[in-house]
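Q: Could you write out the predicted structure for this multi-component system? I'm mainly interested in how the pieces pack against one another.
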Amino acid sequence: MASVDVPVALLGYGTVGAAVNYFLTQNADDIERATGHRLRVVKALVRDVEKERNFNPDPGVLTTDFQEILGDPSIAVVAEVMGGMDPTGGYVLDLLRAGKPVVTANKQLLAQRGAELFAAAAEAGVQLRFEASVCAAIPVIKVLREALVVTNVHRVLGIVNGTTNFILSQMEGGKDYAEALADAQARGYAEADPTADVSGADAAAKMAILATVAFGSRVTLDEVQYEGIERITSAHVQAARQMDMVVRLIGRATLVQGKVDVRVSPALVDRAHPLAAVEGAFNAVMLQGDAIREITLEGPGAGGIETASAVVADMVSIIGTTGTGFLHNDASYRNLERLEPGELRSPYYVYLRVDDRPGVLAHMAERLASHDVSVARLVQHEQNGGAALHVVTHEARAGDVAEALAEIGELPETTSEPEALPVISERGVAELGWA
Amino acid sequence: MASVDVPVALLGYGTVGAAVNYFLTQNADDIERATGHRLRVVKALVRDVEKERNFNPDPGVLTTDFQEILGDPSIAVVAEVMGGMDPTGGYVLDLLRAGKPVVTANKQLLAQRGAELFAAAAEAGVQLRFEASVCAAIPVIKVLREALVVTNVHRVLGIVNGTTNFILSQMEGGKDYAEALADAQARGYAEADPTADVSGADAAAKMAILATVAFGSRVTLDEVQYEGIERITSAHVQAARQMDMVVRLIGRATLVQGKVDVRVSPALVDRAHPLAAVEGAFNAVMLQGDAIREITLEGPGAGGIETASAVVADMVSIIGTTGTGFLHNDASYRNLERLEPGELRSPYYVYLRVDDRPGVLAHMAERLASHDVSVARLVQHEQNGGAALHVVTHEARAGDVAEALAEIGELPETTSEPEALPVISERGVAELGWA
């Protein structure tokens, strides 16, 4: 196949944009071998063409005029690496409507304007790829859309926020929450205002994107129930360890009889589960489906170079599939119902303090049983003159657990507000109707 | 994009072939959404058309005549799921030469005739895809070729044989080698003659394929130095545990200053390393590269349904990239030198027994030091009136370690043949010249 020069453009030329240009320049031969084409950055939109850059583009590439990209019919694909919502969203929409495929690393843009952008891409018959928007270089979107096309993925479990995973790993090593957070900030893993990470909001946006792709039905950020790690203390971490589990911030997207549930919360992960082994600022996503049992992808979930690697892969994949119809449609092609939140089933870890006298345990067990919540493991120990109870339940409806705990909380012998965290232990199984 | 009916064919219709037909039938809508095409099995080559099948094809699909597939110009892609070398190899070659893209799950065929088959595919300008030949549904080939196209992968670490990983996991639980092997055989994880698995030969064939794709330079089975788990005893497993490590059969493909080294051997894996968490019959592959640090993929590495899932993904990917030049070339495009085996650097675990008297430790340490092997950790304990030494070295040349151990083995106070196993602890780092 003859080599074809393919002009491409960038919106933004910061760390990620410069790395994309570096990769396309340094690896031009590799890319040509894979695609038959040489991708070359001919325009990059910036605010200031005079600013010092990490990797300088050719003279004349930097521009402050978006029309030079939109109006250039030779540009075959555009990568949006400028971030933000405005004017970014308008630029991406204009490009798609003009028939230009777009690659974006912009999680918030997809979470907030995904429906509109994908509709424009589908109408124009061009691709909108977004690997870098979730977990940087970990190719979870490509794997879901291209490798697992017939596997009926019904559950996605993810550690999709490196900051919180780093903090929880540090707490496992003995630090308390404030020390671990300060350490994360000192190393650049957490921002001065860490709210977006520690509140679970960042993870929720990523889980919305993953659920949309995995289930083919649009999930928006406001549909994701999320809770962060702010209330996790060393006591949780120690209790988990005593039961051979670890505390992790887990995103869960689940398809239950055709209904979708997406949530993010701290959870206790069984030490034998692959997600328990994910340490530090790393991310991991486990995909469970009928034909594959489970596949887990793990790696660094952030970083400019890692993000650029994913952006380039998407650009190359677009050039390699243009005109064939492949992935030219919206990843969301159906509109699934939402599961009523109380209906999601999971094993739970329950913690409460009670008076240390005869009959208390029976009382509590009876309340759980009356809501169909059965006890798998129980550890009781003395604490400040009373008793601390650590309970792991078998799988139960979230609603039943909440109701049982509300009743237990009102018992006179209960001396603390009962707490519940989901337990992650389930593994994928192959279930097919054909054999 | 208009729906286009795409006739496809299968060589073989056993468990995998029937599952491929099932997936293409049941998931036709999903596939059409992704590719714009509906794939339909129109012919399947079998030895006996009357045999009972798991999922029956349409009447007239089964045939015993290869020419009905080779000579049908409407067939757009053929999946080889019959296995074996002959007549399989000839069929695949004929199909490629006739301009038909082929998908194969046949590891031995690729390891033995890969160069010839890829040359034929490249000459005809068609794709030969082989995801299912390594680790079943774990999409490591797609990730290497399509997601990591610009990442300069320089190391592949793999647990690519589920049988041996199951046996080693059982030994960690307290069984001895013979018990663990018997258990694997009882569960169907190991064959009656387990040689191909426990000798490391199966893992070596997979590592040859992975190294070829990762480095773009053909590695054949006879170039892979391999050693199995037959000599691993409970003593190794216990020694590893005492040093917070686990024993695993690890494939290593390494690029050292442009030279290739591929080997398979038992190794001690640091418990904090992602590969230490891979339990039971699962497989995992860690890819380390400049732009990604490291990405690990884990999942079931075998199974008929899992294999079929990977075969279908390859068929769909071929239809989605036909005519664009994408992956139409041989994955092997250069001819790299081989690293001299003694040159590979690694930390090592060394075990030996010595007389328990003054000066012995100094003697041994001196021999190691004289070969530039420095000691990172040492545990000495009494054993049968003598002393057992467990040593973990810093990174050292394999050749230096071998020479030092040969000398130590000849010291009068050494009472056992010194043993060495590589230690796997290194993590990927981002190293780019651009910033």
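A: Regarding packing and overall arrangement: Chain B touches chain A through 76 residues (CB under 8 Å).
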